[in-house]
Amino acid sequence: MIEGIGAEILLGENEIAPYYRNGSKSCDRCPYLALCGFDPQLGNRLRFLHTMKDEAVWERLEKEETSDALDGKSKAGD
To answer: Which residues pair with 19 in a beta bridge?
Structure first.
């Protein structure tokens, strides 16, 4: 997953996608807010993230990896 994200960034696919979770926004701590141009009035939207237990995260990642292998998808850079 990290390799895929890195490949997208190198291809210039770096969309503005801050998140909202547990009452705070990633923009609240971001030193690049003035540069990125995120503005809800321009149609930009926050991604709402839900808290997951560690076990649930690992299960989901394993399921996605298995699904990709069955679909014949390869990771970026392979």
So the answer is: 47
20: pLDDT confidence band, cut at 50, 70 and 90? very high
Largest pairwise CA distance in the chain: 43
Q: How do residues 28-77 score in pLDDT, each as one tens digit?
A: 988 888 878 888 888 888 999 988 899 999 999 999 888 877 776 655 54
Query: 3-state SS string over the chain?
Result: CHHHHHHHHHCCCCCCCCEEECCEEHHHHCCCHHHHCCCHHHCCCCEECCCCCHHHHHHHHHHHHHHHHHHCCCCCCC
Q: Residue 25 burial (CB < 10 Å; 0-12/13-18/19+)?
A: middle
Measured on CA atoms in the order 50, 56, 62, 66, is the torsion positive or negative? negative
